[in-house]
Amino acid sequence: MKITKVEVFRLPTANSKQNSPIGCRIHTDVGICGDGEAGMAYGVGGSGAFGMVCDLAELIIGMDPLRTEFIWETMYKRTFWGQNGGPVVFSGIAAIDVALWDIKGKYFNVPCYQLLGGKVRDKLRTYASQLQFGWGQVGVSEHLWAVTPADYAHNVKLALDEGFDAIKIDRDEEGKPLNFLDTTGLLTPKQLKMVESRMKAAREAAGDDVDIIMENHSYPDALGAVQLAKLAEKYNIMAFEEPNTPTTQTVEYIAKYSSVPIANGERLYSRWQYAEYFKKNLLQLAQPDIGNCGGITEVKKISDMAHAYDVGIQVHCAGSPLTTNAALHLECTLPNFLIHEHHTCNRMDTSVGLTKYNLQPENGYFTVPDLPGIGNEFLQEAIDRATLYKVIE
Predict the structure, then answer these.
(1) CB 119: neighbour CB atoms within 10 A?
(2) Tell me: the pLDDT tens digits for 301-311?
(3) pLDDT tens, 86-118?
(4) Could you tell me where the beta strands, DSSP code E, fall in the chain?
(5) Strand pairing partners for 24?
(6) For residue 25, what pLDDT band results from cuts at 50, 70 and 90?
(7) How many whole angstroms separate alpha carbon 229 and alpha carbon 192?
């Protein structure tokens, strides 16, 4: 079996400025195709990820798609910029790697999790992620953007009513993201009161039996992160996510002055970048992103490394429904899996009409599909509407 061509595309969504998935479809000479996705669909840099997938695709034409390890190393070592690379390189590698695993599962007619060691659990505990953006009906764009403490409490109750027993919230000011001037250095008493009022409302709405993850999106620096972490201690949070721009020195400083478990990983892109965090016990919950961390091949290695340091795994999952499937197939095989992220974007209209399936958890738990490969694919009608499209053969 050989790779004959690769389609690369950027898909339009209901709000393309927020989330425009970058996907690829790898074709083989036996008629089996596999789909993968780059993780840089949101924020700035999507066109760079699109270009990287195109460039990497040129390297793999004619190769045997079952040689996933060989192809991964080829993309990493033959590109010059792969070694110690960042999100553009590893998003490109990720899209191709996931598509190759999809092909491999289809070739052997088994779900990918069977090729990754088999399930260690049948159901995956899931949390409702980013409730500050709302938690409305699936496929509907009108979600309440939380501003007041009452808004936060309302969105928490919506998730709890669906059976979730874990949630994640961030904080913005008056419905607008804080800028770097607001989050650099020590936070003001007013800012801290705003955060605490929302955390207090969320905890009171959730009760004592619900886990809360406090998101920071790396906005604070280490000074502000310590203030926020100490504030969060009294609310018994499950994890303090992305407290600052991740460096081992600054995270070590934050950990020194706080007892809250630290979650991090979506801005770390390889096992080499994770290694020092594990060695210094600076992470309690690692969150590698299958879409920007080298795909299934690399995230499996990171997860196994984490297991040696008693670090839990929650695969960062904020892409299209295709990425949800890939994450579930890996997570169900991990002894150190802790919880799955179900982002509110996976419920919005931006995820409708992109893929054959749009999996949703039931009562706060996911089950893993048993279809061959990753069990999902991009719709041809979505590819036909692509805003960027290229074929490499």
Answers:
(1) 17
(2) 999 999 999 99
(3) 999 999 999 999 999 999 999 999 999 999 999
(4) 3-10, 22-28, 33-38, 123-129, 166-169, 211-215, 239-241, 262-264, 285-286, 312-313, 340-343, 365-367, 388-392
(5) 8, 36
(6) very high
(7) 11
